Amino acid sequence: MTAIQSNDLCLSYGETCIFQDLNICLPKGKITVFIGSNGCGKSTLLRSLARLLTPKSGQVVLDGSDIATLKTKEVARRMAMLPQGPSAPEGLTVLQLVKQGRYPYQNWLQQWSKEDESMVQRALELTNMKHLAERSVDSLSGGQRQRAWIAMTLAQGTPTILLDEPTTYLDLAHQIEVLDLLFDLNVRERRTIVMVLHDINLACRYADNIVAIKDRKVWAEGQPQDVITEELINSVFDLECRIIEDPLFGTPMVVPYGSGKQPGQLHGASDTETPAALVV
User: Fold this and answer.
1) Helix or strand or coil: residue 110?
2) For residues 117 and 137, what is the distance between their CA atoms, to the nearest angstrom?
3) Which letter does DSSP use for residue 28 in this model?
4) How far apart are CA 82 and CA 150, in angstroms?
5) What is the pLDDT of residues 179-206, one digit of tens each?
6) Rounded Cα distance, 38 and 198, in Å
7) What would the pLDDT profile of 204-236 be if each residue is shown by its tens digit?
8) Contact 196, 43 (CB under 8 A)
9) What residues form DSSP beta bridges with 214?
10) What residue numbers bound the domain in which 121 lies?
11) Where in the cell is it found (predicted)?
12) Residue 278 to residue 280: CA distance in whole angstroms
């Protein structure tokens, strides 16, 4: 089944074409990760799928409905979008931020309900932010702040969640923490997760489906073991590498190298020196 698909989608900024006649299908209940070099259009595509960018032509279909025909609140009940580097008003508490996730369900007839409260508390619990609920968002560490924003996204209660580089500016421990949280949501609740990641090895580890983007088009799409090859990394990132198996997860692992230090060359050894360990 398909959660989101694009039909002959054309995206542009002014006269600059970003994507032309793009057709993709993102599987329902799976984790899809967009990869590609800086400026290739990953974030632009994600924004268009969330209806934050109006296409020049073509359509985005969300759960079988043309997203352009849906009311704003209806889209917000079906899909949540966490942009890159979101900011909150000064002094806003974590609890106040997370409550914003329930906005799509509010109107002048229906005010704050027990269901709203339950969803907020559950989001705080899932993200391990309950003990920080009364702290201001701007006083949190980078990892805590990102979890607060994810909690707000979860409080929306949508079956589909889009995230633009959710691990940016986080250290490795917090990157794993955030990705584990999203993985658990996918496994336990079958939420459809679509995100942009820069770390290809983490993308391979967590994704069911990888979409590689280059030259304003989808270069390859599919399961990590089918998509991530030495040829693809060279073509998409202009980078030489070796692909080995992740010893813990069995997924593809990219071992990159450039034009400087070469594979097998010991640190500090010149090109003419023979490493002592290799002397027989």
Assistant:
1) coil
2) 19
3) T
4) 7
5) 999 999 999 989 999 999 999 999 999 9
6) 9
7) 999 999 999 998 789 999 999 999 999 999 999
8) yes
9) 217
10) 89-158
11) Cell membrane
12) 6
